[in-house]
Amino acid sequence: MTYLSLIMALITIESQGNDFAKGDRGKALGCLQLHEAYVYDAAEHAGDYWVHEDAYQRDVAVKIFMAYMDRYATVERLGRHPTMEDIARIHNGGPNGYKKESTKAYWAKVKKELDSYDIL
Question: What pTM was estimated for this model as a whole?
């Protein structure tokens, strides 16, 4: 499995591929259903200027996701190499999402989607 496969699975789970999706009562935007704090957190880390509405642009949403993971899904923070599960759970539950019981069900959905790709 590749990082690209994980991003594809997250997009499917989050929005069924809809770049203009709105969820969580309008608080989560775009194909990856990014919240405003996530976007600003990633922008701060990347030294970029992204606003919440940038989540509607798939290429920018992926850059935001990558910057967020570059900040939080690291060996330094986790004490080991981050797994796909860690990354998905951080995406779903914030910087410490990989430790939260509440993100396990989300990972199960992502894992099921990844398994359906049958890439070997």
Answer: 0.95
